[in-house]
Amino acid sequence: MPALDLIRLARPAQWSKGVFLLLGPAYGLADGKWNLATGWLSLALALVVFSLASSACYIVNDLLDAPADRKHPRKMHRPIASGRVSPVLAIAFAGVLLALCGVALFFMPPRLAIWTLAGVGIYVINVMAYSAVLKHIVIADVVSLSVGFVLRVLVGCAAVGVSPTTWLLNTTFFLAMFLAFGKRLGERRLLGGEGATQARGVQAGYTDELLRLTVVVTAVVSLVTYAGYVQNQQDKYQLGFNLLWLTILPATYALLRAIVLLERGTYDDPTILATRDRPFQLAGILFGAMTLALMWARHSGWVGAALVVGGTGPGT
After folding, report:
1. Does domain 2-164 have CATH number 1.10.3210.10?
2. Per residue in 207-259, pLDDT tens?
3. Which one of 84, 129, 178, 270 counts the least CB within 10 Å of its CB?
4. ∠ Cα 41 156 292 (to 5°)
């Protein structure tokens, strides 16, 4: 049915990436930098705008990738690649989605709407550059995709008027690189080197060894960067020790499990892995629940500053 194919074309499953818009506001809320009662609507509208804009970008990318997608065992069933949605209809649908973005922005406070529009606009430009040129350039393709995740964080912060920390931007960037390199490794495991190259031309510039190395390196850098953030917060989540450290455990498990499944070729896309693999999902839920609980505890005064043994606190 055309209506269902248009929904598939919009890739609503990819809207889950919008969780990155919530990261900055979540940490900012714990620090009391904005008010949930007055800012939730702007944040929700920003999430809608980014989701719709990203869907429009996916449509353009699918139009350009249709010839290659027809050679991919999973992507060949996409609405455009399979011929169920014509290019003209796809372009018209993308235009409708972008128009709806404008409607959502209209209901945001003008200052926040301008910053949100700027962030989403840069995201669209970046995606267009990726679709036209950067996706054919080794490493640049991954950097472009990773910048898209950083822009999600920036837009989420802009929607509520808070500034992201460097820790948050660094962790987001390297984690996104891990996801992108992991996707390329998964494709090679599923399709083989030649098949992966036919489905994604830039794969010709990668090797199994290079991708395995970059996946491991970016996973480690992501964890080390997050561990640095946790250490930086040690005076804010004290209750005998830095309770925020506990969140490192599910984060480490999730990343390492993703590496194992991508290396096996069980999944060729970390996004699909995140929506289907129960242990990975449980780790993600545990990480989120622990983080939110600790933020609430800090906001409520249950945890806070204390003597830090072996650090720079009083009496050491």
Report:
1. no
2. 999 999 999 999 999 999 999 999 988 888 888 899 999 999 999 999 999 99
3. 129
4. 85
